[in-house]
Write a structure and sequence with these properties.
The protein is an alpha/beta fold. β11 (about 345-350) and β12 (about 355) form a beta hairpin. The longest helix has about 35 residues, at about 130-165. Helices cover about 35% and strands about 20% of the residues. It has helices at about 5-20, 40-60, 115-125, 130-165, 170-190, 210-215, 220-225, 225-245, 270-285, 325-335, 375-395, 405-410; strands at about 65-70, 70-80, 85-90, 95, 105-115, 205, 260-265, 290, 315-320, 340, 345-350, 355, 400, 420, 430, 435-440, 460-470, 475-480, 490-495, 505-510. It contains twelve helices and 20 strands. The protein folds into two domains: about 40-215, no CATH class; about 250-510, Metallo-dependent phosphatases (Purple Acid Phosphatase, chain A, domain 2).
Length: about 500
């Protein structure tokens, strides 16, 4: 028998081992565990994707623009814990209605008043009797459109996000279907809990929190609807007249050799003022806007958003605080671009003119007269006069000073060529004893939103001041009046200082 070498025996054994599959034996007495799927985690992930996708869909495309009576509105559905309806009336605030209980809230933003539709109501007051039915029809039509668009939005959003997360068309379609089911369930819950009487008990916020005291209790409006119809007709008439006046500004070709300052004051939270100011800046090619205060009505933080259009008016904005403007108002303006806040006599050189001013020492948004108010104003004017003397001594004299109250402005007589003021809601030009000219501007807001409560809206007033670029002295000024006694006209009056044209009295030049 032939012997096999040891090396060959080892190689053959190794090959057998390699061909034989290995099996790991578990120790006796142990149980093998296999990983089980967790369906609740998958379900939670799917619900998260559905909710997030539906919310993104509503946020991007889930809104409709609807005309409700004379107003243009935007209606949107938003996720909510308690449901209800929120009506935003910028910049006045909002009111909330407990209209339904569901995980979705209806948001209605009042964008603007359409002058043509409002004028139609004014011209045909008999239509006011059917205004309630018209508004109900508009809201119902908008709600149907919103429901259809919301279905498309949530299905599209959830499906798109599901496809991005899972990368499986079946999972994505499941997410879209679940989103539609949730929206339908929310709509059914809202319909089942709908409370039409919620409009009689709204919750006011922002500046509208004082609305019940201004317009009366909602139940009184319902029971005395004839009286309310007359009030509504008067308010719509006056608001329409103010809007119409903004489109009648005359064209003007300014002299390029002058510095043009637009003097405004006492806007009192009238949103129409920004369009008027922007139109004047463009037509007169204004270099600087000077605002002598009372831009707000109550000086609350809720009003601050009203100031945002100032950044887009097209000219630097110089501002001093009025008695309706708070320190909160002043701080908000200081953070806006292209705004120069003057207080405590500090000076700024803007567009070739040096301005200095002081804020009103009184804060009386409720229009009360505090004890010693006159003495406080005179003291503020004295501080401003001292600052003007310091500027002159430093070789940097001020060209235009600004204060809100005329009583404070008169204290700087002899220290500056021109001082601007407001507060009185009518315009004046006065030459003081020591040679300082005092210019008091009327209300560029037509006395604010409260002006529409009268028989006629107050006129909207502003001025264009023309300065020589070399001497930086006032050469002429135009007084601009919009509306007048409820008229939709604009009138511009040119005035010349006596030292420029002795013996010539100003002659008004009405616009076409």
């Amino acid at each position: 028998m032939a012997r096999v070498p040891a090396a060959a025996r080892i190689l053959t054994a190794a090959n057998r081992i390699r061909r034989t599959p290995r099996t790991r034996q578990a120790p006796p007495g142990t149980v093998q565990l296999t990983e089980q799927p967790r369906p609740w985690i998958r379900a939670l992930g799917l619900i998260t994707v559905v909710l997030l996708g539906a919310w993104l869909g509503l946020l991007i495309v889930g809104n409709v623009r609807v005309s409700v009576g004379p107003m243009d509105t935007t209606m949107t559905l938003r996720p909510s814990v308690s449901g209800g309806t929120k009506i935003n009336v910028s910049p006045l605030g909002a009111l909330q209605l407990d209209s339904h209980i569901a995980p979705v809230r209806l948001d209605v933003n009042v964008d603007r008043l359409d002058p043509e539709r409002a004028q139609a109501l004014v011209d045909h007051p008999e239509r006011l009797s059917g205004l309630q039915d018209e508004v109900a029809h508009d809201v119902a039509h908008g709600t149907r459109d919103l429901a259809l668009r919301s279905c498309v939005a949530v299905v599209t959003g959830a499906t798109a996000l599901g496809l991005a997360v899972y990368r499986r068309p079946r999972r994505a379609l499941a997410a879209g279907g679940l989103a539609l089911t949730l929206l339908a369930a929310s709509g059914g819950t809202a319909a089942a809990t709908w409370n039409p009487n919620s409009v009689l008990e709204p919750k006011f916020s922002g500046l509208l929190s004082s609305a019940p005291s201004l317009v009366g209790d909602a139940r009184n409006i319902v029971t005395e609807f004839d009286v309310y119809q007359k009030e509504l007709a008067r308010l719509v008439t006056n608001v329409t007249k103010l809007y119409d006046a903004t489109s009648t500004l005359p064209a003007y070709q300014p002299d390029p050799s002058t510095i043009r300052v637009l003097h405004v004051s006492d806007i009192h939270l009238n949103p129409a003022s920004w369009k008027i100011i922007a139109s004047l800046v463009e037509q007169y090619q204004v270099n600087v806007i000077a605002d002598t205060g009372d831009t707000m009505d109550h000086g609350t933080a809720a009003e601050n958003g009203f100031l945002d259009p100032i950044e887009d008016l097209g000219a630097p904005y110089v501002w001093v605080r009025g008695n309706h403007d708070s320190i909160l108002t002043q701080r908000y303006l200081e953070d806006l671009e292209n705004v120069h806040v003057l207080d405590e006599g500090r000076a700024r050189t803007i567009a070739g003119l040096r301005f200095a001013g002081i804020g009103d020492p009184q804060f009386t948004p409720d229009r009360t007269n505090k004890t010693g108010a006159e003495a406080t104003q005179e003291l503020a004017g004295a501080r401003l006069a001292s600052a003007l003397r310091d500027q002159k001594a430093a070789g940097r004299p001020v060209d235009v000073a600004m204060a809100h109250e005329p009583s404070a402005a008169r204290e700087v007589d002899g220290e500056v060529p021109l001082i601007l003021a407001g507060h009185l809601h009518h315009d004046e030009m006065e030459m003081l004893e020591q040679g300082t000219r005092l210019r008091i501007e009327g209300s560029t807001g037509g006395s604010g939103l409260r002006a529409v409560e009268g028989d006629y809206p107050d006129p909207i007033e502003a001025s264009i001041l023309y300065f020589d670029r070399d001497t930086r002295r006032l050469q002429a000024w135009d007084e601009i009046e919009l509306g007048g006694l409820g008229l939709t006209t604009a009138e511009v009056s040119r005035h010349l200082p006596e030292e420029n044209q002795p013996g010539v009295s100003p002659t008004p030049t009405p616009s076409p």
